[in-house]
Structure formats: structure tokens, C-alpha cells
UniProtKB/TrEMBL annotation:
<dbReference type="Pfam" id="PF01762">
    <property type="entry name" value="Galactosyl_T"/>
</dbReference>
<keyword id="KW-0812">Transmembrane</keyword>
<comment type="pathway">
    <text>Protein modification; protein glycosylation.</text>
</comment>
<feature type="transmembrane region" description="Helical">
    <location>
        <begin position="19"/>
        <end position="37"/>
    </location>
</feature>
<keyword id="KW-0472">Membrane</keyword>
<keyword id="KW-0735">Signal-anchor</keyword>
<dbReference type="GO" id="GO:0008499">
    <property type="term" value="F:N-acetyl-beta-D-glucosaminide beta-(1,3)-galactosyltransferase activity"/>
</dbReference>
<keyword id="KW-0325">Glycoprotein</keyword>
<keyword id="KW-0443">Lipid metabolism</keyword>
<protein>
    <recommendedName>
        <fullName>Hexosyltransferase</fullName>
        <ecNumber>2.4.1.-</ecNumber>
    </recommendedName>
</protein>
<dbReference type="GO" id="GO:0000139">
    <property type="term" value="C:Golgi membrane"/>
</dbReference>
<keyword id="KW-1133">Transmembrane helix</keyword>
<keyword id="KW-0328">Glycosyltransferase</keyword>
<dbReference type="GO" id="GO:0006629">
    <property type="term" value="P:lipid metabolic process"/>
</dbReference>
<comment type="similarity">
    <text>Belongs to the glycosyltransferase 31 family.</text>
</comment>
<keyword id="KW-0333">Golgi apparatus</keyword>
<dbReference type="InterPro" id="IPR002659">
    <property type="entry name" value="Glyco_trans_31"/>
</dbReference>
Amino acid sequence: MANILYSALYIVNSTVLKYLKQILIFILGTVALFLIYENFEIGCWNIVALGTTSAAAAEHPWEDPGPYHVAYPRNYKVIMDDTPSCKTTTPFLILMVPVAPGDVAARDTIRKTWGGEKQVLGKLVKTLFILGLPGGADAQQQQEKLRQESQQHHDLIQSNFQDSYRNLTIKTMVMLEWLVAHCVNASYVIKVDSDVLLHVRNLVKLLLDPSTAKQNYITGVVWWHSPVLRNPFNKFYMPRDVIAEAEYPPYPLGMAYVMSLDLPGKILGVSSQIKPIYIEDAYLGMCLKRLGIPPTDPPEQTLFIVDPSHPLSSCSLSKVIATTTTSASQMISYWERSRQPEAKC
């Protein structure tokens, strides 16, 4: 009886082992075929990816700049420029306003106020708006509206970078490129934010003063010891591996700064040596440091006011060159008051 059971178990075990062996061979064969297929697919994908990457590199030589830099220098092009300024006329002073593509209300407010001033103290003044490409689902409709606005006002300069807050450095550098290409015979330019009231007469008066330099000149609210912020939760956080220094070089605050027209070309000349950060006015200071040209403090601190206590008095409005405002209605009110006879202080 034992022999019979042993023989039966032997037969069963042999059968099981036979089937297990067949299953193992099937699994190994399947895995081998899968690996061969995957290697073939990966090889083909790498060839395609290599071609795609090469094409992309040829079109966009810069890598992703990361969170603290911007993709400049790049071969950005002006795609809309219907202004005669610096082409058929030579302004003494150019008022250059960076503005979002969709912010037509801000542009119209400026056109109705200080941006509409053409002759000031006998000098030709011209206001221009610089912008990039609109974004969002309605970008095409926005672009068509910009084209119509340009045909009506002839004061828009548009380049083909994506317009965003993080690309303000690109916008500033494109602005300088346009000035170098078209306005070398002008005397001064002021870059002024769209929420700023500009007292053009006071600015021209400053620029005509014999003590104001005609070259290597840049002024505004100058920050001489601006700390590099290390708190990662701060909007302007900058890690040490990007900027090791504890302070930025001195720079004029971006709300409004004026420069002589020899500076744009000089700044562009050194910009290729400094990888641009997204904080546009601090980057301008880095370029000025490389040039060895420090900014100039205005003759009075009250000429440029970055954070005023509203409402401003008639005395303050009679002296100021540039001050931030909180609304279009406030800008209009301040501008109308600034045109009244000079207040007694």
C-alpha cells in the first residue's frame, strides 16, 4: 500500500513540476519580450526627443530660467510700433509707461491727464506705452483690440514676450532696446508705472536745471541699502545661491525713474554679463554697479513719493514729480489740481 501511495505522489509531483516549469518558461519569455519592446520604444522615443530638444534649443537657446531669473537676453521682437516718436520727431523727454495689455482704462486715464501733455516749458514731450503679449483664453480678441487702439492713438509699443508681473525685467530691457534703436537723439526718458501721477512740468524743470547731468544720469527714489530678503515666504525672497550679498547695489525704485538717453545702450552693453533676476529695478542697480555709475538722489526727497498719505495737499502737488495713486479718479483729481496756480506752502 505504501509503495502505491509513493508512486502516486511521485506521479503528481512530476506533473506539478512539469506544469510549474512550463509556467516559469512562459513568464520568463513574456518578461523578455516586454523588455525588448520597452527598450525599442525607449530608443525610438530618445531619438524623437533628441530631435525635439535640438529643435527647441535652436529656437530658444536659453534653458528654463527657474523661479528667480528671467529668460533674457533673448531675441524678442517688436511686433507693433505705429508711433512716429523718435522717427519723424525728436522729443526732449519720453514718458515710457509699462502697462498690461488689457489695462486700456489705465492708458486712457494717462492719455486724458499727464500723458496728453505735448509741449512743456518749450520742450517736446511724448508718452508711449510698452507691453507684451496678452494671455488667457481671450488673447486673440485682446490682441485685435490692441491693434485697433494702436491705429487710433499711435502710442503703443508691443513686443512678443509674454506679459506678466514676473517678466517685468524683460519688459524693461525691451524698452531699453527700443530706445537705443530709435531715440538716441532724445535727451531723457522716464520709466513710470501706470498708477503714478507724473507732474511733467516739474520734471522738465528739473531736467533743464544746469546742475542736472546730461549723461550717466539716473534718479528717482534711490534705495541705497536695500536688503536681499531671505524669508522664503516673502514676495521678493532671493536665496543665497542666486545672490550671495546681503544688500542689492543701489537702484532707483521702479515706480518712476528718469535717465539720460546715453544710459540705455550702456546698460544693455553690460546686461549680457549679469544673469537677470525677476526684480527689475534691483537688476537695473546690478547693471549700474557693473558700469560704475551710481544713481543720483533727487535734489529734494519730496519730488518722488512712493507711499504718500492721501489726500495730498496742494502744496505737495505743486512740488512733486511722481507719486503713486490709488485710483483713476484720484489721479485725475490730482492732475487737475496740479495744473492750478502754484499753491503757497
